[in-house]
Amino acid sequence: MKTKLFVLALVVSSFGASAQSVGFDYPMSLVEGTLSNLPTGELEADWGVINLSASPIALKARRQIINEVSGSSNYFCWGVCYDAATTVSILAQTIAPGDTNHTFYAHYLPEGNAGVTTINYRFYVDGMTSDYAEQAVVFCVDADCTAGIAENANNASLKVLGVQPSHGLVSMQYAVTSRNASFELWNNQGQLVKRVGIKNNNGQIFLNADELANGAYVIRLLDGDQTISKHWMVQH
User: Fold this and answer.
1) One domain, residues 202 and 114
2) What's the domain range around 40?
């Protein structure tokens, strides 16, 4: 079951601590299934990996198991498919500026075992491990799927990454707790510039500051009865 996330100006990415060059196109956080209804015997997650920089980048993929159902197995493909014993891709995939690579697939095989497995997938610039984006995926088979999803302490959060004034691509890292959260961008005349609904509990919103007029903006994250506002300066 694939859940399409929102697109705001460009793309949505997961929350990599230093993600500057790497973004995701429609990342998946939850894949559900039942043992009686798995025609291929496995669950699959996939998304596009985007080069947000102005130069070609070579990316490697890393798989980290957070918790795993006993008796299950999993593997991933990044350009080529690797066996279950491989945690870091042997080959790096080179992506041109602004392009999206669609060769990533995460495969989970329950092998007849119900339960929740959580796996984190990180994509980092080869030789520069601090430049990355990552996404945790919960594979849920005949189980309470909320058991594998980390709670966010009932508090929303919003952080503008990078320096200000901003130009070019800028990311806003967020976390929400409700299913009807939204993101708003207001200019200094009190006019609503953008509004979009949020479907993932956490991630990053990417904006292109170069598409906006220079000046002061207010970014608002509305999450149930919580509202977080951040000031943002654009200068290009």
Assistant:
1) no
2) 12-148
